[in-house]
């Protein structure tokens, strides 16, 4: 993903945000850092096929504050993005009506100056939009209705036959966009829950990282090399010596995460400070992948070739100078290897602006 567009969303109007391998949104409180991340996550969930109501449970909060309703009392918002890949830059733009009914009223997928898919609301009484996609066969386009509560781009593989060059171009561009939008992990570690023993389950890390101990129970043995990198990273950012991070089974069938201090002492994560716990969780996320995190990866892309995109609001929240610098170095290193892309919001970007491989985007006035 190379650009996020907030044409009219919450406090943003006409904003285009460039996205690099590691991108930090900066700005004062109220500048729209969190809402920009929310728009990115919303596009990702729509790309996974989620219903509009599930993605926007409070759609009115996404409407620009001073947006005036039209004669039919309609108000809404517009977001979009660009995904680069084998098909070149592919653009997706979505218009959503928030009032009086939540629905997608317009969508456009385009590449190389060609509109590959375009939808529009023709009959407000029907829960469909009229879609037209590029065919380049005996007729230039194919028209059909699509539901108004799903992203049309994600539905194209089910509707386009792929018999003509034009149809194959549509499918390739849609696949590129959907693959770019998937494997997004929105992460906001919640330290209050991370030290609590948890039952063993799926071994897939949740966005709040409260089941971190369950994930360690699995990953410590599955990938010894990355676990060693994790332990080394914790040694930099945690107080006192750290020789291991492990999941310790308890008698009631649960596990808890503990730090091995190397002298026979094991420290429960519950004893760590707020910043230390966030540091532990974010380091684990940066050093793992789609097979461990609670994401919906693209099945058509081999796991070894998938790039996870981490969305982290308040990336520097509670972290000291050493912790945030080490996490940033880790994010850049993993991005260079093609394992991860990172988009985070920070309160003060001064510590990151001169870091190679990091794009700092200042939002707001």
Can you summarize this structure?
By secondary structure, this protein is α+β, with helices and mostly antiparallel strands. It has helices at about 35-45, 50-55, 150-160, 165-180, 190-195, 210-220, 225-235, 275-285, 320-335; strands spanning about 5-10, 10-20, 20-25, 75-85, 90-100, 105-110, 115-120, 130-135, 140-145, 185, 200, 245-250, 255-260, 265-270, 310, 340-345, 360.
- Molecular shape: elongated
Biggest beta sheet attributes: 8 strands, antiparallel
Compute the number of strand runs: 17
Helix count equals 9
Separation of the first and last Cα atoms: 25 Å
Overall pLDDT score: 91
Judged by helices, strands and strand pairing, the structural class is: alpha+beta
Roughly what percent helix?
Answer: 25-40%
Topology as a string of helices (H) and strands (E): EEEHHEEEEEEHHEHEHHEEEHEHEE
Strand order across the biggest sheet?
A: 2-1-4-5-6-7-8-9
Evaluate the radius of gyration: 22 Å
């Amino acid at each position: 993903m190379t650009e996020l567009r907030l044409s009219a969303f919450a406090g943003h109007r006409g904003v285009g945000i460039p996205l690099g391998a590691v991108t930090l949104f900066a700005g004062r409180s109220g500048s729209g850092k969190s809402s920009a991340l929310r728009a990115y996550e919303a596009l990702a969930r729509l790309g996974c096929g989620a219903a509009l109501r599930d993605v926007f449970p409070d759609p009115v909060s996404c409407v620009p504050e001073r947006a005036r309703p039209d004669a039919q009392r309609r108000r809404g918002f517009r977001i979009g993005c660009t995904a680069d890949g084998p098909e070149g830059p592919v653009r997706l733009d979505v218009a959503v009506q928030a009032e009086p009914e939540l629905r997608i009223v317009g969508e456009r997928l385009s590449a190389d100056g060609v509109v590959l898919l375009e939808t529009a609301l023709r009959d407000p009484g029907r829960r469909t939009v009229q879609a037209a996609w590029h065919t380049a066969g005996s007729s230039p386009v194919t028209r059909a209705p699509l539901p108004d509560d799903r992203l049309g781009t994600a539905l194209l593989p089910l509707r386009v036959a792929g018999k003509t060059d034009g149809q194959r171009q549509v499918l390739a561009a849609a696949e590129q966009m959907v693959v770019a939008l998937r494997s997004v992990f929105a992460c906001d570690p919640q330290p209050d829950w991370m030290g609590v023993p948890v039952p063993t389950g799926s071994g897939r890390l949740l966005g709040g990282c409260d089941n971190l101990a369950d994930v360690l129970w699995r990953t410590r043995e599955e990938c010894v090399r990355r676990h060693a990198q994790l332990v080394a990273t914790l040694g930099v950012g945690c107080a006192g010596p750290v020789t291991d991070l492990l999941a310790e089974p308890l008698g009631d069938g649960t596990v808890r995460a503990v730090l091995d201090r190397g002298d026979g002492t094991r420290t429960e994560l519950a004893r760590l400070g707020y910043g230390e716990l966030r540091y532990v969780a974010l380091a684990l996320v940066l050093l793992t992948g789609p097979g461990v995190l609670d994401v919906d990866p693209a099945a058509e892309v081999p796991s070894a070739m998938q790039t996870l995109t981490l969305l982290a609001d308040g990336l520097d929240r509670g972290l000291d100078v050493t912790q945030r610098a080490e996490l940033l170095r880790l994010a850049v290193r993993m991005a260079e290897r093609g394992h991860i892309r990172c988009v985070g919001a920070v309160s003060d970007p001064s510590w990151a602006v001169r870091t190679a491989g990091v794009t700092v985007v200042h939002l707001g006035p």
